Amino acid sequence: MNGLLKARTRAVSSGIESLRCWRRWCLSQVEQNEAEKDDFASKMPPFDYSPPPYTGPSAEEILAKRKQYLSPAVFHLYSKPLNIVAGKRQYLFDENGRRYLDGFAGIAVVGCGHGHPDVVQAIVDQVNRVQHSTVMYLNHAITDFAEALAAKMPGNLKVIFFTNSGTEANELAMMMTRLYTGSNDIISLRNSYHGNGSATMGATAMCTWKYNVAQSGIQHALNPDPYRGEFGSDGKRYAKDVEELIQYGTSGRIAGFFSEAIQGVGGIVELAPGYLPVAYDIVRKAGGLCVADEIQCGYGRTGSHFWAFESHGVIPDIVTVAKAIGNGIPLGAVVTTPEIAQVLVSRAYYNTYGGNPLCTAAGLAVLKVIEKEKLQENAFVVGSYMKERLAAVKEKYELIGDVRGRGFILGVELVTDRKLKTPAGKEIVHIMNQMKELGVLIGKGGYHGNVFRITPPLCFTKEDADFLVDAMDYTISKM
């Protein structure tokens, strides 16, 4: 009996010692991983700027107030939310002064970089003159910017109505197509996002972004998605669905057709080659207007062209613009022809803040910076380089199903099975959180939430691209 007790005691002691060893090993692994992360983060490209010391509330205090005072619909990224207190060019800084490489640009908004001195100065100068009056008074800021923006448009797209956001721009464009054509039906693409207003929510075609409210007069065509679509990259076959929707789902006459040349919220899906020219022809034969939503993919972001639709060889009847147009200032625009613009004069249409001096002064400064610093060209060169590097990482890991996009609007789709294309939703959340710990911020999107959205400021460098891709590579390798 004593011998049995001693044996059990030795076994328990051995087990306890094994557990201690296991714990020590685990702690050493954690310490090693943290040391590796710190070592990796230290390799971020050098940057000669430090923000002023932050003395405001902590992330925890802000999060508590958000929960108390803001709508519960306002969500945040990351398991441990970031408190961003400063930004400079392609970098953001948290409350502790830690620097992060911004690969998301506030959802493709900050085109020419955070705190660009030319844009800041234009805003300060305009505030010192007059911040807001009304577009019913004359002011050169709105006409100067309208002239410059119209000069970037092809064809006869020369008349502009300014708004405060992309949703407002698309709402107005939808109304204009209906007024001009006398028809009601509008076609947009499945997987598209055009806003969250009463009309644009109807054009948006992902249930994630749609409430159960009346959304009438909208048809959704097959998405010409080269990766997940049933016809692959055969754009003409997808366009046939637009024709059939008109024949079987409408009176035969439609108001308009909305499309993003590269779907942003939908997961950086570039429309299949040959699709838009055929779809535009079908729509125009049915009396409809063609609307290009350039809110995320436009403004030099693709690099190859200033407007993403230009890569498809088409000229829309209406173009909607926002996000990068103001570099963070609330600004949007509807650009169309003089003839179509006339539809609004039959009644009084007014937007209180749309085109105010402050916003349009900022808009003009942004456009000048993009041209002066050749940021579109940079988006092409560095964006193409980054896409090549991402494609190389794809070859290393089965987790990456697709790398797509162009310039500085790139998508990396994660799947757990390449043949079945099973969305890797949990994995992408883990990788995003780990990349944040390494100092890299990117977004995610797509219907299944399994696509990295890489939309950095247009001043991103090759060194920045290398650091971003290396961070993704390193993180996946540790899974």
Class of secondary structure makeup = alpha/beta
Q: Distance between the terminal alpha carbons, to the nearest Å?
A: 49 Å
Please list the strands of the largest sheet in the order they lie side by side.
Answer: 4-12-11-10-7-5-6
**What is the strand tally?**
18
Rg over alpha carbons: 26 Å
Q: Report the biggest beta sheet as strand number plus sense, adding barrel if it closes.
A: 7 strands, mixed
Shape: globular
The average pLDDT score comes to 94
The share of residues in helices is 40-55%
Question: How much strand content do the residues show?
Answer: 15-25%
Q: Low-confidence spans: pLDDT under 50, at least 5 residues? A: none
Helical stretch tally:
14
Structural write-up:
This protein has 479 residues and is α/β, with parallel strands linked by helices. Helices cover 41% and strands 16% of the residues. The protein has 14 helices and 18 strands. Strands 4-12-11-10-7-5-6 form a 7-stranded mixed beta sheet, with helices on both faces. A hairpin with a 2-residue loop joins strand 13 (400-406) and strand 14 (409-417). It is globular and about 100 Å long.
Q: How are the elements arranged and paired?
A:
Elements: H1 2-41, H2 59-69, E1 84-88, E2 91-94, E3 99-102, H3 105-108, H4 117-129, H5 140-150, E4 159-163, H6 166-181, E5 186-189, H7 200-203, E6 218-221, H8 235-249, E7 256-259, E8 262-263, E9 269-270, H9 275-285, E10 289-293, E11 318-321, E12 332-336, H10 338-341, H11 357-372, H12 375-394, E13 400-406, E14 409-417, E15 422-423, H13 425-438, E16 440-441, E17 443-445, E18 451-454, H14 462-477
Parallel strand pairs: 3-16, 5-6, 5-7, 7-10, 10-11
Antiparallel strand pairs: 1-2, 2-3, 4-12, 8-9, 11-12, 13-14, 14-15, 14-18, 17-18
Helix pairs in contact: 4-11, 5-11, 8-9, 12-14, 13-14
